[in-house]
Design brief:
By secondary structure, the protein is mainly alpha-helical. It has helices at about 10-30, 35-40, 50-55, 65-75, 75-90, 90-95, 100-105. It holds the Pfam family HTH_3.
Amino acid sequence: MPRPAVDPARAAAIKSLRQAAGRWLKAAREAAGLTQAELAERVGLRYYTFVSQVESGLGRVPIESQAAWAQAVGLEESAFARTLLRHYEPELYRLLFGDDAHEDRASA
């Protein structure tokens, strides 16, 4: 079955959400007083450039390492994961948490 065409508006919205997640992560890292290299070391990354990619919205924090990232920047794990879910998978976030998403937006 052929893949459906990518909707440009949806692609732009996804890019915007990823960039917002990146800004949020960068702010959390900076608030923790960490450089990209220090964060990379704390979460077991070989290269700090992955942190840069995530902060620019080009990459995502893998689910299996979200707890380590949360601990490294001093945030509560479930709140960290929930914020990333809202940015990375907004429809799943809506299904799980309803339209009360506006309450979480204030923390982003």
